[in-house]
Amino acid sequence: MISAHGIGGARDLPIPPELAIAGAVAALTVSFTVLAVAWRNPRYDAATSGRAAPAWLGRVVDAPWWRVLWRVVGFVLFLYTAMVAVFGKDLLTNPLFGIFYVWWWVALVPLSLLFGPVWKAISPVRTINLFFAKLSGGDPETGLYRYPERLGHWPAAVGLFAFVWMELVYPYSTELGPVRLWCAIYVAAMLVGGAMFGNTFYERADPFEVYSSLVAKLSAWGRRDGVLLVRSPLANLDTVTPRPGLVAVTAVLFGSTAFDSFKDSSHWVRFVQNNDFIGTHSYGLTLANNLALIAFCLAVGAIFATGTMLTGVEPGFQRRTLPGLFTHSIVPIIVGYVVAHYLSYLLEAGEATLIKASDPFSDGSNWFGTADWKIDYFFAYHPTLLATTKVLAVVIGHVVGVVAAHDRAVRLLPRRHQLTGQLPLLFAMVAFTVGGLWLLFSA
To answer: What are the TM regions of this chain, as residue ranges (predicted)?
Structure first.
C-alpha cells in the first residue's frame, strides 16, 4: 500500500471524463466572469482582515503550558519514530514507512487546514534547538548569523524535492536503510541550520514547516501583532509573504503530485514498456522517472510564471516579481490536488500505519491496542462518492485560486488592465485544471 498509492484509475471514477473537464472549465470561466463584473476593488487586507478569536481560546493557545504540551507530543512521536527506525526490522510491517510517507507527508495537509501551522507547533528539531539554546544560554530565535534574505525558501524547495524524489523515484524507497538515512540527514541539516540562523531558518528553510505553514494559510486561524485571529481562508491566504524560492516550493508540490498521477497512467506505462533503452538497461526506468519528475516541476513553474508575467502592468514595473506576488493563488490548487490524489490513500494507509504502530518490532506485540483493528475500505464501496469528491476538490481548489488571483490583480494591475491583464493567468489555471482532471482519469 505504501508504494502503490495513488488516485486510482478510471474504474474508480464513474463519471465521464469529458463531462468533468467541461464542467470544470465552465466553472472557472463563469467564476472569472462573475468576478470581473462584481469584484472591482480588493477586499482582503492583512492589516485589517479578521477578528480576534474568543478571549478564552486566545488565553489557552497563548498559554506556556499549551505550547509545552504540543512540544512534548511532537517529541514523543519523534522518539517513537527514531526507535522503530533504529531497532525495527527492515520489513514493510515496520511503522516507520507509514509514519514517513503517510502521517508526516499526507496527514500534514488536513491537520494544517484544521488547526493552522501544525509542524511549527510540534517540530522536534525546533524542540531540540530550543533545548540546546537553553543549555548554552542563547536565544533560539537568533543564531550565530542572520539568515540571508536571498535564500528565501530555496532550501525548503530543495528539501521538498528531495522528499518527493525519495517517495516517487528512488527505487529503494521502501527499504529501511535509505528512509533512515534520509531522516538522519534532515534532522542534522535542521539542527545545524537552527544553530546558525535561529528559528528564522525553520520558518523559511524547513521543508515541512514551510509546507504546513503554506497550507495553514487556508485555515481560519491567523495572527496579527501576536493576537490570535479568526479569518476568512481567502483573507488568510492574502497574508502569504512572497520570498525568493516560493514559486519553486509550489512548483515542486504541484508538479510532484501531477507526476505521481502520470507515472501510473496508461500513456506512461506504454512508453516505458515500448522503449528499448528503458527495457534493456537496469537504470533506464529510474532515469526516465527522474527526468519526468523534474520536467513536471519545471513545467508547472514555467506555465505559472508565464501566465503571471504576461499580465498588463504599468511601464517600468518589474514583471519578474509578479510570479511571487501571485503564488498564494496556487496554494488552494495544491490542496485540491492533494485531496483528490491522496484521500483514500490517507484513510486506508493511515489506518494501516496505526495498526502497525502497536507492533513496532514486528514480534506480535500490541502496545496501543490497535493491532487487531481492520482497515475500513469505505471508499472502495462508494466509488461515486470518491469520484465526486476528487473532481470537486480539483474544481474548488481552482475556483478559490482564481478568486485569490483576481483580488490580488485588482490591487496590483492598472485599471485598464485589471480584466484583460488576468487572461494569461486564467488560461494557465484552465490548463492546470484540464491537465489535472485528465491525469485523474488516465491513471
So the answer is: 19-39, 68-87, 99-119, 151-169, 181-202, 291-313, 325-344, 380-403, 423-441
